[in-house]
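User: Reviewer 2 asked us to show a designed sequence for the structure in our supplementary figure. I'm pasting the structure tokens here. Could you produce the per-position amino acids so we can include them in the response letter?
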């Protein structure tokens, strides 16, 4: 027999949101890394040692992208917690199956 019930999510914890959303960082960072490696090899062939400049750019880009992304997600979580407490949160329907 299936039973449905609704739950309302009124508060999110920042560590759990950051952990969940950091999984989405893997794909852009991997693509950015592959692009940077090919770009560095291309420049290394054309310009010589100048091509090695791309590797530190990759590391700085990963750090800035990750920090910006995680910072924005922490801010979104705080705003959600503020407004969900006053106006209600996301309502989910859960179906129990035996």
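Assistant: Here is a per-position design you can include in the supplement:
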């Amino acid at each position: 027999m299936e039973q449905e019930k609704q739950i309302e999510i009124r508060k999110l914890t920042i560590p759990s949101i950051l952990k969940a959303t950091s999984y989405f960082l893997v794909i852009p960072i991997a693509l950015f890394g592959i692009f940077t490696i090919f770009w560095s090899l291309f420049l290394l062939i054309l310009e010589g040692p100048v091509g090695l400049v791309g590797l530190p750019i990759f590391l700085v880009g990963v750090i800035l992208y990750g920090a910006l992304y995680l910072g924005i997600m922490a801010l979104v979580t705080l705003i959600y917690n503020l407004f969900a407490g006053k106006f209600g949160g996301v309502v989910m329907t859960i179906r129990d199956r035996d």
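For the response letter, you might also mention the following. Residues 54-87 form the longest helix (34 residues). The helical segments are 14-22, 26-47, 54-87.
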